[in-house]
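We give the entry.
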Amino acid sequence: MKGIVLLVWLVISLVLPMKVAAEEEVVVATGITFIEKIFNPVKPRLADAGLVVRIVFADPIGALKSLEAGGAELAGASLDFESWLKEAAGKGYTVKDRGSLTPHVIVVEETVVIVNAANSVAALSKEQLQGIFSGRIQNWKEVGGSDLPILVVWPQVASGALVKFNSQIMDRQPVTKTVLDVASINDTAEAVAANVEAISIENIEKVTVGGKRIDAPVIKRELTLIHKGDLSPKVKKLLEYLRSEEARKLFR
């Protein structure tokens, strides 16, 4: 009997440390694009590899702050490294130790301009987009469409896509305050499909029935993760998987 108890104890003592070691948690501060496009699709495969990603929801600047304060091991945003730091500095936050930060590009994302499928407008120039999104152009007939007021759909949550649109298309002019608010960029397609007079931007793969992409300047941006200091084994493991062909096939 004692021999059986001892054997059971030895088995438990061997299994438990292996189970603990098999579940390594990586804390990532990021927003909706990384969550829905990158981490949600690969979650089951990460679990198989013994990795758990815990998300701290944050906009690009909040993600940087969390990383530097030690609240996250990775910060993620749909911005290239230089644009990310520039955007943070423009909002009053300068990283404390730039040399300690290392960026990792995971994938390149494309954002497009969308309108309702019933809209006859097929193309808009950069200048026309500036007029529409700034509020200077308020009727579709001013850009060759029907006599309908223009409804700008705009996300409340800041993201890399919005930052890039502001810098590449708007030349940093503010977007009109008269908008239809939606929670995030992942909600713009549904709102545009539901409103014949609407216009917005959306990640290319999210364009849905009821909306359409128009011929307009394309906005490309890098989805970037940043780590601080030395690369820990578990973070290295996560980054290597995210850059693998298997992971790329799962991204949405």
Notes: DSSP finds nine helices and nine strands in the chain.
